[in-house]
Design goal:
This protein is mainly α. The protein has helices at residues 13-33, 39-159, 170-178, 180-280.
């Protein structure tokens, strides 16, 4: 495995190769001119040393170049992969944002419908209670009037009962007896009226009791339905809030990823330019 270096080496391999070629030619010329030790020989030795150093530097440059080339390849591959992964994330988040907003719209409509149902339920309870109250008052008044009428009939009927005749003197009693058939007729009418009134009172009382029981049952059902609707509205509102948070988070992730992709592309472009320049040296 090669070790990559991010620092660019500025020495030119081309210039060093040309220097090596010139130095080699110079050394060959001096070697032909001087066969013994002397000033020129010393120069030759110095040049030999310089040649060795240049060759060592060339080896180092070759190593640096390979390491830099390895770094370029890895950086380019790594950044390219990161950019592609980022694009996939952006695509997923865009889809999730669209789905989230669609869900928000659906929830908003459902919440409005549930609110309308809640209002309708409350209005129905209010109207039903008002109707029941009016009906109760009417029945109560009718029962009261019926009982009053029954008491009145009973009082009038006592006048026509035979035991009351003993309270009359003989003359009055004889006079009353002449009208006895009529008295009996009135008493019969009163009795019929009494029975009818008592029957009406019983019927209204029964209807009132039944209406009261039915109303209580209806109100119980309406309140249960209202509770269910309110729970439903609460759940829908909570889900709407959660969906809004998810959309906001997805949007933030999308924006951050797009910024990162932009930065990665800029870095990759700079690295590719630098690597191409180094390779051309």
């Amino acid at each position: 495995m090669c070790v990559c270096a991010a620092v660019f080496v500025l020495r030119s391999r081309y210039s060093r190769a040309r220097a090596m070629k010139s130095l080699t030619c110079l050394l060959a010329t001096l070697a032909l001119a001087v066969a013994t030790e002397g000033p020129v020989g010393k120069v030759v030795n110095l040049l030999e040393d310089l040649k060795g150093k240049i060759e060592d530097d060339a080896d180092m440059d070759e190593k640096d170049f390979k390491e830099h080339e390895c770094w370029c390849k890895k950086v380019q591959a790594s950044k390219a992969e990161m950019i592609e992964e980022g694009k996939k994330v952006v695509k997923v988040k865009e889809s999730e944002i669209v789905e989230g907003k669609a869900k928000e719209n659906t929830l908003q409509k459902e919440i409005e419908e549930t609110k309308e149902e809640v209002v309708e339920n409350q209005d129905s309870q209010a109207k039903g209670a008002k109707v029941r109250e009016t009906e109760h008052d009417e029945n109560t008044q009718e029962i009261k009037e019926g009982k009053t009428l029954v008491n009145g009939i009973n009082q009038v009927s006592k006048v026509f009962e035979k035991p009351a005749l003993v309270q009359l003197d003989s003359k009055a009693a004889k006079a009353f007896q002449r009208y006895s058939p009529k008295a009996q007729t009135i008493q019969g009418i009163l009795q019929n009226q009494l029975e009818q009134t008592e029957s009406d009172v019983k019927q209204v009382t029964k209807e009132e009791e039944g209406a009261t029981k039915t109303f209580k049952g209806w109100m119980t059902d309406m309140k249960e339905q209202l509770g269910i609707l309110e729970d439903k509205k609460s759940d829908e509102e909570q889900e709407e809030v959660e969906t809004e948070v998810e959309v906001a988070e997805d949007t933030e992730t999308k924006v951050d990823t797009e910024e990162q992709i932009k930065a990665d592309k800029a870095f990759l472009q700079e690295a590719e330019t630098s690597c191409a320049t180094r390779k051309a040296e």
